Fold this sequence. Notes:
By secondary structure, the protein is α/β, with parallel strands linked by helices. It contains 5 helices and 11 strands.
Amino acid sequence: MTKQEIRKQTIERLKELTGKQKKEQEAAILARLFQTVEWKEAKIIATTMAQEMELNTRPIIEKAWEEGKQVVLPRAKKNRIMDFVRYTSETPMETSTFGLSEPAAALPAIPKADIDMVIVPGLAFSEKGYRVGFGGGYYDRFLADYTGNTVSLVFNEQKIPSFEIESFDIPIGLLITVNETKQTI
């Protein structure tokens, strides 16, 4: 199965989730996340402003602030690269060309080495931590030389046995699902 086919099938499965099922899975996954050493030790956490079918990241952002952690959000740049910008309730946001909410272009980026943990989004995830993203390659490029912790929060509908790995695919270090927290690298 191609990555494009995997994307299509996973999106269909995610759309079939009821609001109740989604909330139940989110609660279990977030409870697991907040118990990890990676979360507890992180001072700067990178996440996204989730889209409707993705796991709601607002509770992650609020819990981080509550615990005195900094939150950084991605900002797409030219040549399919991205950086991360500190996010507070006062941060001016813009809508990207992809329709995503991201920090304003004028704000300074946080050095990659300062980010302790990146919560990496994706559509589908293999047992070995490889992911099928949304197709832009932004996270693969960012993670290529990132040395901090990587975590993905995975609905049951996003788990796949395997797929063809390409040279630029970067495995995620920790996959958190409803039923397990799995170290993959």
